[in-house]
Amino acid sequence: MASLRSFCFADDDLKSMFVGTVMRKIKSRTWKKQRYFRLQEDCMTIWYKSKKAGNTHSTFSVGDVEAVREGHQSEVLLSIADEFPPDRCFTLVFRGRRGNLDLVAESAGEAQSWIKGIRKLIDNLENMGQREKLDQWICDWFKKADKNRDGQMNFKEVQDLLKMMNVDMNEHHALRLFTTADKSQSGTLEDDEFVLFYKMLTQREDVLRVFQEYSGDGQKLTLQDLKDFLREEQLREDGVQQYALKLIERYEPSDTARMLQVMTFDGFLMYLTSPEGSIFNPTMVELYQDMTQPLCHYFISSSHNTYLLEDQIRGHSSVEGYIRALKRGCRCVEVDCWDGPNEEPIVYHGHTFTSKIFFKDVVTVLGNYAFKASQYPVILSIENHCSVEQQKVMAQHLTQILGDKLLKTPLHGKFPIGLPSPEDLKGKILLKGKKIGGLEDSMNGVVDDSLMGEVSDEEETAEFNDDHHRNDSIRHRVKKSKQSLSKELSDCVVYCKSVHFSSFKHSQIHSKFYEISSFTESKARKHIREAGAEFVLHNARQLSRVYPSGLRTDSSNFNPQDMWNAGCQIVALNFQTAGVEMDLNDGLFCQNGHCGYVLKPAFMRNIDERFDPENPQNGGYKPLSLSIQVISGQQLPKVNIKEGSIIDPLVRVEIHGVPLDQAKQETRYIDNNGFNPVWYDTLQFTIHVPELALVRFVVEDYDKTSKNDFVGQFTLPFTCIQPGYRHIHLLSKDGTSIPPSSLFVHVRITKLT
């Protein structure tokens, strides 16, 4: 920590942040209040309070800040652009679903100091090694415990700290630890003494057991010991010696041990808590799949009602929804377009009280953010309710704002024989919508040059009404209508022409590869039940989109796994709504470089195969056995802020896949220990279609009288699991990391004979 502090005190921008600055916090055109901001001495926490008298203040951690945007780069700051110049304005964007913090400094110089300073701190955090991160956590706990801010910790403060850390320890044991750590016998713990106390508290007996099993003398692992461990437990087969040497070089903190090519317990623990010791195979975190297959051969990360930040009745529409989705690697976003004032199309959830935003602002954000997280193509799914005149304006905005990014003609100017690949379409934005005639007609110049064509309005509005027809309490009826389409907007659609779905037989005979049908979740489920294998084949030839029922007015989500099982590529979810469905989406797309495209299994791409998700055993697949020993948990977060409340954790492992593979099992719950619970419980599963399975680890606080509270989770594809002793780094409900919370497990995958 000393190195971080010395860096902070030597940097001019950070020095001025320590002194503090008065800035305006902006929430709207009418809510602009002065606040005093300053960086605290830990170089990690930003403290702010009202200029008025009173002691109330707020803080946030630099670790929670994802990015700093300069100038008028949020809706709030754009709304006051006429009042404050861009060089004084900036926005702090937080991780997860937390709202932005919009600030206006008194001068451009002060704004720059904060913009540059926070960016330096974020970079510094991201470049921290494992040991520095551990030191940071220790420092954070010391700060929380040192209530009277005297830089020392008495025994009462230690007891309070143990409760904060989710530890239920009797007073006698706590006093023994305290006395052992208090080397100076002063009755308080100072810096180094607290570090010792923390390390005694976090002693990993579970990892020590594994270490001693392979260590000849109980003190170190020789190179041979480490190789034995890697072969026998981690099932490492190739280049074991080279890999063992790399681990010693990378994780062993002792210079002497490194020189002797041995690993101490500290180094072993550092390796097991690192990305290489994680359950997620690091080679699959990177881009590793073939990206040259046709677009319909990939699952595509897709958002529904992207413009909404809340529910679908009174929710807030915002371009921020697009920024958040795109930065999470989403590759298909939706716009619901309606006629707006002054011939400017607007985006909102029609016939509801959701707020409205301009279509041109959405297109501008798309141009700016489409390729920040991934270079692979973005599909803009248009739900078009506009008049022909405003459709022309839409086409104009798309063409002028996106320029070359908008794909308006087939690649290489030739008529294609199939869908291009994500690799072919890098850096391109594709429009999904209605089109007059076919791709052949527009390439041959056959389309009538008259101003408009007629297409049937078969999109979500029609499906929404189907849902309502099934709901007797709603008598509202809207007829499916013919809608006029402008040639200009039609010309922007190339590879994603929206068409009505009749039947799989009809599609097989008549469908074109560039046509795409949308299904409401209930229709998709019906097709999967009645004709699963046909649906899989349909999706091997062309794209399908599935979206939530119109009755989900709370923006809840359906289970996407059912749709992926049938090979549906564009499974549109409400990204703004946290829960198991978004955990599964994040779990599937956290592989392959977070690029938003995941290659479907070979048996779903081959039109000569017949895979039925409802009866996979007919395909002759060889099942696998998955055995997970849940060993322990580390520093699980508190879920109940009630004084003295400590969690009773249990771990549930869920398998999401084809119906035959759906399963869940739980460990026992451990009384009053969220700090270092130990289970050693083994859970067994049989996986018939591993290529489609996702494994979700959930930690809950057991409650015998009511529903268990969520503590943390981690979801990953079965195919990305590393066997052996592994740590699982837990995520919050929002999908953000909650270090140092983790689970320690032992995983074995074997073939069933």
From TrEMBL:
Domain PH: 15-123
Lipid bilayer topology: Peripheral membrane protein
Catalytic reaction(s) noted: a 1,2-diacyl-sn-glycero-3-phospho-(1D-myo-inositol-4,5-bisphosphate) + H2O = 1D-myo-inositol 1,4,5-trisphosphate + a 1,2-diacyl-sn-glycerol + H(+); a 1,2-diacyl-sn-glycero-3-phospho-(1D-myo-inositol) + H2O = 1D-myo-inositol 1-phosphate + a 1,2-diacyl-sn-glycerol + H(+)
Cofactor note: Binds 3 Ca(2+) ions per subunit. Two of the Ca(2+) ions are bound to the C2 domain.
Positions with a binding annotation for Ca(2+) 5: 701-703
Compartment list: Cytoplasm; Endoplasmic reticulum; Membrane; Nucleus
Record's keyword terms, sorted: Calcium, Cytoplasm, Endoplasmic reticulum, Glycoprotein, Hydrolase, Lipid degradation, Lipid metabolism, Membrane, Metal-binding, Nucleus, Repeat, Transducer
Domain PI-PLC Y-box: 489-605
Pfam families, sorted: C2, EF-hand_like, PH, PI-PLC-X, PI-PLC-Y
GO biological process: intracellular signal transduction; lipid catabolic process
Main location: cytoplasm
GO-annotated molecular function: calcium ion binding; phosphatidylinositol-4,5-bisphosphate phospholipase C activity
Region (Disordered), start-end ranges: 459-479
Biased composition (Basic and acidic residues): 465-475
Sequence ranges assigned to domain EF-hand in this UniProt record: 133-168, 169-204
SMART domains referenced in this protein's UniProt entry, alphabetically: C2 (SM00239), EFh (SM00054), PH (SM00233), PLCXc (SM00148), PLCYc (SM00149)
SUPFAM superfamilies: C2 domain (Calcium/lipid-binding domain, CaLB), EF-hand, PH domain-like, PLC-like phosphodiesterases
Coiled coil ranges: none
InterPro entries xrefs: C2_dom (IPR000008), C2_domain_sf (IPR035892), EF-hand-dom_pair (IPR011992), EF_Hand_1_Ca_BS (IPR018247), EF_hand_dom (IPR002048), PH-like_dom_sf (IPR011993), PH_domain (IPR001849), PI-PLC_fam (IPR001192)
E.C. code: 3.1.4.11
Group of enzyme by EC: hydrolase
Binding site for Ca(2+) 3: 305, 334, 336, 383
Protein name according to UniProt: Phosphoinositide phospholipase C
Annotated organism of origin: Cyprinus carpio carpio
